[in-house]
């Protein structure tokens, strides 16, 4: 047998072995995904507690208009009381910081991917002019294997549309899916790596589009990993009341900063 033929056959064998390994890995990940879905289930249903209202009505002045856009975290799934949802926490915290009432509107939908942000914005009244928008999205993009460039493109479009309505925008980047204990390894490690990659891309895109990005992985990810029983709700997938409180505490300073930047008077030239 010639050396060339031997090399070709060897390479073919390696490729075939690699292909079999890849197929086996994909089959393993599919099985683990099915296991994770069975473990998590849907004990919380698919509707979050309704939290839209004017918070802290006793304060003087016109309400600050706050809109939450994105997935189940932005919607507050897992909280049992409206004041414990992410929107409720942010609205209360913002009202206390500004000493003004805050009107919360939740456009976020449980199960949403980044590609669904446009539909959420389409559903807003045409004359609605939010002062500040908070977007949290990305987890479902990872679980549904949406390419990162596509996710980022939809996020940038949503930011541009919200800014076109006059809002300042804060983006909570994709949480670290490595904190999800019901997801077995190596699927959890893969989800962690991919969610970090998406979060990094979201941060760059948000800043490029004129928004402020907050890394939820850096801000609260370690707490969710170290205290899962307290930070996660019944399904061990969505935040608990405490989890939403910590997430709101991470986002609130950026919301206040975004509003203060927008309202800062321009220096005369």
Written description of the protein model:
It is a single chain. This protein is an alpha/beta fold and 269 residues long. The chain has a single domain (54-263), classed as 3-Layer(aba) Sandwich (Rossmann fold). It is 53% helix and 10% strand. Helix 7 (187-208) links the parallel strand 5 and strand 6 (212-214). Helix 6 (148-164) packs parallel to helix 7. The radius of gyration is 22 Å and the shape is globular.
Keywords:
6-stranded mixed sheet; alpha/beta; disordered C terminus; 269 residues; globular; single chain; 6 strands; Rossmann fold; disordered N terminus
Sum this structure up briefly:
Helices cover 53% and strands 10% of the residues.
What layout of secondary structure does this protein have?
Layout (H helix, E strand, L loop, with lengths): L2 H38 L13 E2 L8 E7 L1 H4 L10 H13 L3 E5 L10 H6 L9 E5 L2 H5 L4 H17 L3 E5 L14 H22 L3 E3 L1 H11 L1 H4 L9 H23 L6
Parallel strand pairs: 2-3, 2-4, 4-5, 5-6
Antiparallel strand pairs: 1-3
Helix pairs in contact: 3-10, 6-7, 8-10
Tell me, briefly, the overall form: globular
Structural class: alpha/beta
Helix percent band: 40-55%
What is the topology, as strand order, of the major beta sheet?
A: 1-3-2-4-5-6
CATH level-four homologous superfamily name: SGNH hydrolase
What order do the SSEs take from the amino end to the carboxyl end, as H and E? Answer: HEEHHEHEHHEHEHHH
- The number of E-state strands comes to 6
The assigned CATH architecture is 3-Layer(aba) Sandwich
Number of helices, counting only DSSP H or I runs of 4 residues or more:
10
**Biggest pleated sheet:** 6 strands, mixed
- Tell me the distance between the termini: 82 Å
Number of domains: 1
């Amino acid at each position: 047998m010639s050396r060339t033929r031997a090399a070709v056959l060897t390479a073919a064998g390696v490729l075939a072995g690699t292909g079999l390994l890849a197929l086996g890995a994909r089959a393993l990940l599919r099985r683990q995904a099915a296991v994770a879905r069975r473990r998590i289930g849907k004990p919380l249903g698919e509707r979050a507690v309704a939290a839209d209202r004017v918070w802290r009505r006793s304060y003087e002045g016109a309400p600050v208009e706050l809109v939450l856009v994105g997935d189940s975290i932005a919607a507050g799934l897992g909280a049992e009381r409206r004041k414990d949802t992410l929107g409720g926490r942010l609205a209360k915290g913002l009202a206390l910081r500004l000493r003004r009432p805050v009107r919360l509107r939740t456009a976020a939908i449980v199960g949403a991917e980044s590609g669904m942000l446009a539909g959420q914005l389409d559903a807003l009244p045409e004359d609605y002019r939010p002062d500040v928008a908070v977007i949290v999205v990305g987890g479902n993009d990872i679980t549904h294997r949406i390419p990162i460039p596509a996710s980022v493109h939809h996020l940038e479009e949503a930011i541009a549309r919200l800014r076109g309505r006059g809002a300042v925008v804060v983006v909570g980047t994709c949480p670290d899916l490595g904190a999800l204990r019901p997801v077995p390894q190596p699927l959890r490690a893969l989800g962690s790596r991919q969610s970090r990659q998406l979060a990094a891309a979201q941060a760059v895109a948000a800043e490029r589009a004129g928004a402020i990005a907050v890394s939820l992985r850096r801000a609260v990810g370690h707490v969710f990993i170290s205290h899962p029983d307290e930070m996660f709700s019944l399904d061990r997938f969505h935040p608990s009341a405490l989890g939403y409180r910590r997430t709101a505490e991470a986002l609130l300073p950026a919301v206040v900063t975004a509003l203060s930047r927008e309202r800062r008077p321009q220096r005369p030239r």
